[in-house]
Design a protein that fits this description.
328 residues, 17% strand, globular, binds UDP-4-deoxy-4-formamido-beta-L-arabinopyranose, NAD(P)-bd_dom_sf, EC 5.1.3.2, UDP_G4E
């Protein structure tokens, strides 16, 4: 298939590009490079430096670089904390941006989309593991934008026949194990890249946001899923909506809870560096534990996380940091 990957120069998008080209698909990337990196672009794909807020940019790319069989849409703002302070920014980038994509697809006749949704759509868990039927009550505006987009997708399916796959990612982490993705995220706020920056000497210490949670070691537990696993989920989801002519909403998680302390200790062991850490108060809005069941992705897509052990997450990420920063 010929696929337009919007946000394909970003951290997850570049891994999705790799999985799609490996699966034999032809890829064109559309990215405004606001957080995506030029170094994540490769000669085997076309590239348009464009913005989803410019409707004509999208229509022109879909017309001139196509015809496309599908869009994979990963372009979004994703800082949950910031979304509570600057919701306007998130409304425009995430909601208006996605509506532009959907409308441009209608105008140019593209009828399939794979969309990056998020576990942030669920909010505080009422039970664990989280399945797709768990009530969706997002705790932050970022999660709200993702949930609203899922609802728009359902309407565009009903009214315009656009088939979608909404993939609810849990915590994306890790890097391509063969070192093919070298771009590091700028100013990361997520746990593993922060730990890596401390290990690399770019930050003084890790702040552990609370050690008094109701979890085995008192620190927050999350479901970290390797980006290579997430990427293969996109390939399988696109195959599914194409073959079944049916839309899809699935969790993509490892089904394993890893605590902050476990991640930190594994990183100390693998990097052989000290990684100073200090406990600070809880971060507002952080639930104690979140992890998925990915049973639906398994039964419908034959997907499961294969590279998401804590060791593989840390080792592949550290390898990317060593390479990009020329450490050791
Ligand atoms: C993980 C754990 C923190 C940093 C966020 C978004 C979510 C999704 C993924 C994108 C928690 C602890 C973290 C640090 C720490 N985003 N932590 N010190 O909050 O689970 O999810 O990213 O789609 O929408 O909310 O991820 O990596 O920030 O935190 O102690 O410096 O690590 O408290 O327990 P989170 P995270």
């Amino acid at each position: 298939m010929k696929v337009l990957i919007i946000g394909g120069a970003g951290y997850i998008g570049s891994h999705v590009r790799l999985a799609m080209t490996e699966a034999g698909h032809q890829v064109h990337i559309f990215d405004n490079l606001s957080s995506g990196l030029r170094e994540n672009l490769t000669p085997d794909t076309g590239f348009t430096h464009g913005d989803i807020l410019h409707y004509q940019n999208l229509v022109q790319t879909m017309r001139e670089q196509g015809p496309f069989d599908a869009v994979i849409h990963l372009a979004a703002l994703k800082a949950a904390g910031e979304s509570m302070i600057k919701p306007e920014k998130y409304s425009v980038a995430n909601i208006t941006g996605t509506l532009n994509i959907l409308n441009a697809m209608c105008e140019t006749g593209i009828s399939r989309i794979v969309f990056s949704s998020s576990a942030a759509t669920f909010g505080e868990p009422q039970y664990l593991p989280l399945d797709e039927d768990h009530p969706a009550n997002p705790e932050n505006y970022y999660g709200f934008t993702k949930l609203e987009i899922e609802r728009f997708l359902a309407w565009y399916d009903k009214l315009k026949g656009i088939k979608f796959a909404a993939l609810r990612y849990f915590n994306a982490a890790g890097y391509d194990s063969q070192g093919r993705i070298s771009g590091l995220e700028r100013n990361p706020a997520n746990l593993l890249p922060v730990i890596m920056e401390v290990a690399a000497g770019l930050r003084k210490e890790l702040q552990i946001f609370g050690n008094d949670y109701d979890t085995p070691d008192g620190t927050g537990v999350r479901d970290y899923v390797h980006v290579t696993d997430l990427a293969s989920g996109h390939v399988k989801a696109l195959e599914y909506i194409t073959n079944h002519q049916e839309s899809l909403l699935v969790n993509l998680g490892s089904e394993t809870g890893i605590s902050v302390t476990e991640m930190l200790e594994t990183a100390r062991r693998i990097t052989q560096r000290q990684i100073p850490a200090k406990t600070v108060p809880r971060r507002p809005g952080d639930p104690a534990k979140l992890y998925a069941t990915s049973a639906r992705a398994k039964s419908l897509l034959g997907w499961e996380a294969k590279h998401s052990s804590v060791e593989e997450l840390v080792a592949t990420t550290w390898q990317a940091y060593i390479k990009a920063l020329s450490l050791d």
